[in-house]
Amino acid sequence: MKKKLSPLGKKLRFFQPKETYSNDWSELSSQDREWEALYRRRWQHDKEVRTTHGVNCTGSCSWKVFVKNGIITWENQCTDYPATSPDMPDYEPRGCPRGASFSWYSYSPLRVKYPYIRGILLKLWREALNKTGDPVLAWKSIVEDPEKAKAYKSARGKGGLVRASWEEACTIIAAMMIYTIQTYGPDRLAGFTPIPAMSMVSYAGGSRFLSLIGAPMLSFYDWYADLPPASPQVWGDQTDVPESGDWYNAGYIIMWGSNVPLTRTPDAHFMTEVRYKGTKVVSVSPDYAESVRFADHWLAVNPGTDGALAQAMTHVILKEFYIENASDYFLDYAKKFTDLPYLLLLEKKDDTFVADRFLRASDLGMPLNKAEWKTVVLDQTTQQFVIPKGSIGHRWENEGTWNLKPEDEAGHAYQPTLSLLGVEDLVVSLDLPYFDDHQNSLIRRSVPVKQIEQQGKTLYVTTVYDVMLANYGINRGLPGDYPLDYQDLKPYTPGWQEQFTGIKGDLVIQIAREFAQNAVDTQGRSMIIMGAGINHWYNSDTTYRAILNLILLTGTQGVNGGGWAHYVGQEKVRPLEGWQTVAFARDWTLPPRFQNGTSYYYFATDQWRYEELPLQELTSATIKQPRYQHPADYNALAVRLGWLPCYPQFNRSSLQLADEAKDQGAVTNEEVLQYVVNELKSGKMEFAVEDPDNPVNYPRGLFVWRANLISSSGKGHDYFLKHFLGTSHGILGNDQQALKTEEVRWRDQAPEGKLDLLVDLEFRMSGTALYSDIVLPAATWYEKCDLSSTDMHPFVHPFNPAINPPWETKTDWDIFKGLAQRFSELAATYLPSSKKDIVASPLLHDSPDEIAQPFGKVRDWKKGEIEAIPGQTMPKFLIVERDYPQIYDKFISLGPLAEKNPLGAHGLSYSPQGMYEELKKINGTIQRDGVASGRPSLEFDRQTVETILALSSATNGTLALRAWQAEEAKTGLSLQDIVSDRAGERFNLASITAQPKEVISSPIFSGNTQGKRRYSPFTTNIERLVPFRTLTGRQHFYTDHEIMLEFGEGLPIFKPALPNLAFAAHEQAPDVSAKTLQLRYLTPHGKWNIHSMYGDSLIMQTLFRGGPTVWLNNEDADTIDVKDNDWIELYNRNGVVVARAVVSHRIPRGTTYMYHAQDKTLNTPGSPLSHERGGTHNSPTRIHLKPTHVIGGYAQFSYGFNYYGPTGNQRDLKVVIRKLEEVSWLED
Amino acid sequence: MWNQFWWVIFPYLMLALFVSGHIYRYNTDQLGWTAKSSEFLEKNYLKWGSILFHVGVLLVFGGHVAGLLIPKTFTDSIGISEKIFHASAITTGGAAGVITLIGIVLLSLRRLTVKRVRLTSSFTDLIVAILLLLIIAMGVYNTLGFNLLAKSDFNYRETVAPWLRGLLVFAPDPSLMKTVPLFFRLHIILGFALFGLWPFTRLVHVWSVPIEYFKRSYIIYRSHRQISRHAPKGK
């Protein structure tokens, strides 16, 4: 072989004669092309792996990760998505710069490589273990010694994490769990991890382990305030939205509080493309957001007043498209698919009336099955009252009459009467609740009514539509306080809204007309994309319902290219049935404990102690006063009436109750449960929520994974620090003169450090990891098998490991498997025998429970208003057997119930027959003595992936067909043609790794995607007449639960933001010398992060100022002498932030923006006020619990995990800002 | 003994290192062969410091050639008197020295005081800056300070220059250096030390001055095949 010349040798060729051409204009260099190899090698790799990012952005983008010499090098977008259809743009490529930077984390300095335990705790543990030689006694000796407990709790968040072995970490955790189960019961442990769709198997690892033990999982969607309660209120559905491709079908789009290019980056191209097609785009946003640049019109609304804007647009649409120039399309849609023609009872009040609940068949004395749950319309032809099919009563009598055919129960066709005007018996005046910035008042208008004589009483009824027209001030020549024209300042005209929103009335009229006219012209292709900007408010549900008016009145919902598109943390687990079987261990035990996150944190962090606003100020003027003045009391009411869950459950251990009952002579399970009811009724036993500051009721252990609870989603950050964790904090307000509770016990001294152990599974040192007692090193998204899906597109994407988990990291599945193993080993000694666990469960949506409490009236057994009956007037109580030494065996195998019980979701169930045997072949079986023996293996994450895909209708055609057949039986409709062409399809890990594939249409979701159609929600309901899961089976404008009416929210209504100031009236704002300014405080999603993810990476930090920033308007900044990039302090009663000011005219005056989830781990100096490091974006926040969200046991107002329940809203706040002259980094 | 070391062994050692070091570095560190521009990090100091230093150092190099390599006998023979030579050496050499000194002072200050430049500097960057500063400062002192103030009858053209020429033709005479004042000696020793370090520092960029551009064709081809040793010269 010829020897290669050295670089110098080559260079010396310079002196050789050269070939030159073209009169010396060109020459042949004496140098070779070796240098190019460098660049070629840069892009060479050994393997390419398809995976995705398990981040909470709803993107679910398919990525290729490249590995070279065993090292992850870079990633690239996949470009092999199947084409959508020939006339529209494709999905590929998906991705954004944030995702493209992810490989930085694998080997970054932030990577958690080993198990860590806080040094103080580890030292205490080793001493205690040496002394006692018994892990459970050792743990007991630490947490029961106030000094020792305080020593390690008060050190949380202050560093001092030291490396420990997996063995030691698992032993401490298992000992803590066993001690807690023995002493208080399993419900004192809990797990928090959000958004299963972003990595389903990783979610399932922890939830499976905790569900087997009996520990509750905490919900996230409502806690994040991403859940729009309006959706269950209107549709009975959690959230169902169009995939982004469906934007391309729209003719008119309003982006309302949603910054599409920023927060839906991989999907934003559809918005650009549909604009080229000619679609008009309007942006409603208080600031000059990125979405505004897309828009033809910018409605720069004052923050928090969007409801007023929507009310005025509703006014215009009702007036012009229903009365003056009625659209047949709209009227037809309203009659068939909404509750507008349904009859309401009016309640007589002195000389006037107020709207009450829906009229029922039972009110008319009709002898029907479940007559209390069947609603009534007036037939236009016969002028008779008819009971249309499809109401919730039909749903649960299982007679195949649950459908939207325009027929009554007997099968006779009818024509609903929309308005009684013209056929009325008389016209009566109607008082309607009204809210503005000043006081809650009444508007008096009138409605045509029918009188019904029934059992000696006169019932006055009218339609929802007539009440709507009265409410919106549409004058049909009836007496009352109606506006004269659009400029009139009476509610709800375009002129009226201007005083709140600051938007010119004429523009509002124009947009409303265009939106509706487009819907007329295109048969419903007008769309509103809604986002967190309007969803995180206290009154966001009424705002949403006001906006949904526009959607429903124009017949756009359930039409491709039309309807609402709520994109706020709304990920969709496509393979839902299989996932929830594995994730909540439904294959072994039922029911799992599901706790609504907001209530849990509201009480655990003692935010309930800082309420300042009596509810009197927020309730309707139609009532004298609300049931309670304090929201916590409503929560306590909700728990005992079976509306909301409550874990920790009772002020006694749920494991000891059965033994106590036996001691009292109970023999059978029924007697045990009767004992529980008696104890509650007699007041000897309480729900934990009634005394949250009693040590017996504290939450004791919390597992957090796939989440940054403390620094990203912990609204009321400093309350978490003070009361939950017991470490130093920046709270500037106090609870001593706050609003007091009636039902929840007030203890003068608020506890600090309730939680015994916080365990975090993380791959980066996030804020939560720094506050945790134990940090377990997790594998990243490039190091495990998992599944990801979203509702932004119809694909299910796999995670595949590009490398094995490096250092001592493990996948989430393996970590919980390891914990289960250690736990079971210790349990064999400490919890050897089988235990009876009494589980209290709320009345659930999509189950017969939702027809437990008729007419939406509150009947409190504690006050003697009704008998206490489990499952009807109070929670259900169930006995679950716990065999703690078997937890590991159960964890690693698919249990017998997966073979026996039907699969399903959303009230639909079908047989899993054959799948269990098949999974034995796919996954192999467990070869080990005990309960797992011979069962399908779930030992490894990839087996869990296969199991989830095999047991779900969206990914298994056989099951999809069975699901549609079940839906046919329920509705009496013919539906299985929707899926018949795909019934033979199966998804597995290998097939979705080879290429993305669109999921199969399933009746557990409401959209029909047959034949390459884009997914749009409720198309099945509209086209195939499947009812909505609501009281009437139709889409609801009106909600008739007593508490909804108490808060004036029977109809959509405008309510201003809460009148909270930075400090409560009884508090003293700190005395500072600098000029200060009080501003509204908003925390929208940022450009350089997805929550706190990516925000701490070097790459993203270099893109914008590298550290926490707060945006404010230039004129506002001038008033307090703040220049761009100055350090400022921002504070209110809840906490303090120190950050740099970004001064910009794109921010409106009077408002400041701190973009979401800026963790305080980077470039965060100390605050002179709190003497702590200057806070996270959540330091100034505190949640406000809204009583209408606690309603349960009533049709669509029934609890579902992440489905209904109070939201952790945090927008209705003000802060004070001042310039910081000196910056202390707390480094001395 | 020391005389022998400092004026014979040490210079040869440094020159040997200089030559072999360059060959080694060029063959093994093609991608590191760079001036390591830090203009991205700081511009103002660099603008003045770099230009003054580079202009100055070229003039100083010329001065050293004129003063050290040209024998006194030659200038005498063409009629340039010692006095004129000396005066012009002090004025032009002094001016060039001062320019270079200002340049290197600015550059060194920049390297040490501008945080982002300091943090991105390697050890050799700092050594080079300090060595250059010392050498140039002493050179300026030797040219201006010593000649003007010390009123000594020392003449480097009769001592240092012949010694250096001897060194270059492999006939070094260390005895010539016996009477050389301290600062001249230090200037020379540090100078040779810099030559020794040179291949391992950013100073290699000196050899990458693209003078070949002056005669290169406008369009350059590179061939996949090995260039033959005797390529025909085409037109």
From TrEMBL, chain A:
Protein name (Swiss-Prot/TrEMBL): nitrate reductase (quinone)
A Pfam family assignment: Molybdopterin
Residue intervals of the 4Fe-4S Mo/W bis-MGD-type domain: 46-110
Cofactor(s) listed: [4Fe-4S] cluster; Mo-bis(molybdopterin guanine dinucleotide)
Catalytic activities: nitrate + a quinol = a quinone + nitrite + H2O
Source species: Desulfosporosinus acididurans
GO annotation, cellular component aspect: nitrate reductase complex; plasma membrane
One GO BP: nitrate assimilation
Membrane topology summary: Peripheral membrane protein
Annotated InterPro entries: Asp_de-COase-like_dom_sf, MopB_CT_Nitrate-R-NarG-like, MoPterin_dinucl-bd_dom, Mopterin_OxRdtase, Mopterin_OxRdtase_4Fe-4S_dom, Mopterin_OxRdtase_prok_CS, MopterinOxRdtase_cofactor_BS, NarG
Molecular function GO terms recorded: 4 iron, 4 sulfur cluster binding; metal ion binding; molybdopterin cofactor binding; nitrate reductase (quinone) activity
Assigned keywords, A-Z: 4Fe-4S, Cell membrane, Electron transport, Iron, Iron-sulfur, Membrane, Metal-binding, Molybdenum, Nitrate assimilation, Oxidoreductase, Transport
Cellular compartment(s): Cell membrane
Family statement: Belongs to the prokaryotic molybdopterin-containing oxidoreductase family.
Major localisation: membrane
EC numbers, comma separated: 1.7.5.1
UniProtKB/TrEMBL annotation, chain B:
Recorded GO MF terms: electron transfer activity; heme binding; metal ion binding; nitrate reductase activity
Topology relative to the membrane: Multi-pass membrane protein
Chain ranges of the NarG-like domain: 3-223
GO biological process: anaerobic electron transport chain; nitrate assimilation
Localization per Swiss-Prot or TrEMBL: Cell membrane
Residues that coordinate or bind heme b 2: H187
Annotated residues for binding of heme b 1: H54, H64, H205
Annotated TM spans: 6-24, 45-64, 84-107, 119-141, 182-200
UniProt cross-references to InterPro entries, sorted A to Z: Heme-iron_electron_transfer, NarG-like_domain, NarG-like_sf, Nitrate_red_gam
Top class in the EC scheme: oxidoreductase
Protein EC: 1.7.99.4
Keywords, in A-Z order: Cell membrane, Electron transport, Heme, Iron, Membrane, Metal-binding, Nitrate assimilation, Oxidoreductase, Transmembrane, Transmembrane helix, Transport
GO cellular component: nitrate reductase complex; plasma membrane
NCBIfam families (alphabetical): narI
PANTHER family found in the cross-reference section: NITRATE REDUCTASE PRIVATE CHAPERONE, REDOX ENZYME MATURATION PROTEIN REMP FAMILY, RESPIRATORY NITRATE REDUCTASE 1 GAMMA CHAIN
Protein name, per record: Nitrate reductase-like protein NarX
Source species: Desulfosporosinus acididurans
Encoding gene (name): narX_2
